[in-house]
């Protein structure tokens, strides 16, 4: 049964952070095989949906003007994909995207937006689909969408569709920084010099920030070298973060957003304040990992 016509469903579309990302091979169709430890941040975009006489789509937020408002937008592609699978329930909707994450920046903004759209419209339209069915729809939109539908700590393998939940990770204070770079993921993968790296080491019990950082020190982001060759300014962001006395500094995904991990939220906030003062035009956010089950 449809919800009341005046009901608005709002869902967060959190930043996806690749704490570690190993490239382990490439399929015959060109897709790369990955092994990645992923968390989601408390900061991100927001998707609002409600019933309407006709479909509409609007965007706001600091990065809303940087996205297309046509079928190239993953939000509209997600709406249309869900509608094709459930045409009898898919009534017209008004969708609003508050875009707070930089575009093409390695923290899964578009994929997370698509996942939030699928979840919110499934609720609005009263679709009782199995998680596996929604994941299959999400995979058609992009390799990162299934993991964003999970929205919890995980290891993603294959092209991103083989997902293993990770329980028990501690609260991770994090600073996200991007100096205005948009990086092409296909170009980064094309620039890789090595594609047959070993998978992630076995995941031990990780009870503290120190445990997590000690484990991550044994891992890598295999996309960083290629991204830095294509866009050397990423190294500037990394250097700035290293100057904040973080426990660990790394690039997320294919870049160009980088992150730093701290012992406390207060240290992350202080580092963000100082970094913004030095670089007022950068995207800089102090946040933390999403608590399991929240």
From TrEMBL:
One of its GO terms (molecular function) is 4-(cytidine 5'-diphospho)-2-C-methyl-D-erythritol kinase activity. Keywords: ATP-binding, Isoprene biosynthesis, Kinase, Nucleotide-binding, Transferase. Pathway: Isoprenoid biosynthesis; isopentenyl diphosphate biosynthesis via DXP pathway; isopentenyl diphosphate from 1-deoxy-D-xylulose 5-phosphate: step 3/6. The keyword ATP-binding applies. The active site is at 16, 144. InterPro entries: GHMP_kinase_C_dom, GHMP_kinase_C_sf, GHMP_kinase_N_dom, IspE, Ribosomal_Su5_D2-typ_SF, Ribsml_uS5_D2-typ_fold_subgr. It catalyses: 4-CDP-2-C-methyl-D-erythritol + ATP = 4-CDP-2-C-methyl-D-erythritol 2-phosphate + ADP + H(+). Residues 73-151 form the GHMP kinase N-terminal domain. It is an enzyme of class 2 (transferase). GO terms for biological process: isopentenyl diphosphate biosynthetic process, methylerythritol 4-phosphate pathway; terpenoid biosynthetic process. It holds the Pfam family GHMP_kinases_C. Its EC number is 2.7.1.148. Catalyzes the phosphorylation of the position 2 hydroxy group of 4-diphosphocytidyl-2C-methyl-D-erythritol. HAMAP family: IspE (MF_00061). Belongs to the GHMP kinase family. IspE subfamily. This is 4-diphosphocytidyl-2-C-methyl-D-erythritol kinase. It comes from Phyllobacterium brassicacearum.
